[in-house]
Amino acid sequence: MSAYALLDAPALTQVGDEALESIILGHLDEQAVISLDALVILLPDYSWNQIFHVVDRLARCGGITLRRHRSEYTLFSTHYAA
């Protein structure tokens, strides 16, 4: 295997992040609004850090809206009319 093939191959964490992103967006399609704590409970196969990393990335690119009230984070679908 050439060095270029290794550089062009997607990282395992990137592939895992894409799968987790799809799962999170699926939950938001169903519920429109969900707390981060509820999402962590719904996804026991992932750590809090993994979930927050993907949620943060989605919020920064405009895929979701993330709001913080005191110590609680809430995710809103982009389709949610506030």
Summarize this structure briefly.
With 82 residues, this protein is α+β, with helices and mostly antiparallel strands. Helix content is 57%, strand content 18%.
Structure description:
The protein has a single domain, classed as Winged helix-like DNA-binding domain superfamily/Winged helix DNA-binding domain (Arc Repressor Mutant, subunit A), CATH 1.10.10.10. It has four helices and three strands; from the N terminus they run H-H-E-H-H-E-E. The chain has helices at 3-8, 12-31, 36-42, 48-61; strands spanning 33-35, 64-69, 72-77. Strands 1-3-2 form a three-stranded antiparallel sheet. 11% of the residues are buried.
Name the descriptors.
82 residues; alpha+beta; Arc Repressor Mutant, subunit A; three-stranded antiparallel β-sheet; 3 strands
Task: State the helical fraction.
Answer: 55-70%
Order of helices and strands: HHEHHEE
The main β sheet shows up as:
3 strands, antiparallel
Strand order of the largest sheet: 1-3-2
Strand pairing plus helix content: what structural class?
A: alpha+beta
Named at the architecture level, the CATH assignment is Orthogonal Bundle
User: What is the strand content?
Assistant: 15-25%
Using the alpha-carbon principal axes, give the shape: globular
Count of helical segments?
A: 4
Mean pLDDT value: 84
Instruction: Report the span from N to C terminus.
Output: 52 Å
**Low-confidence segments, ≥5 residues, pLDDT <50?**
none
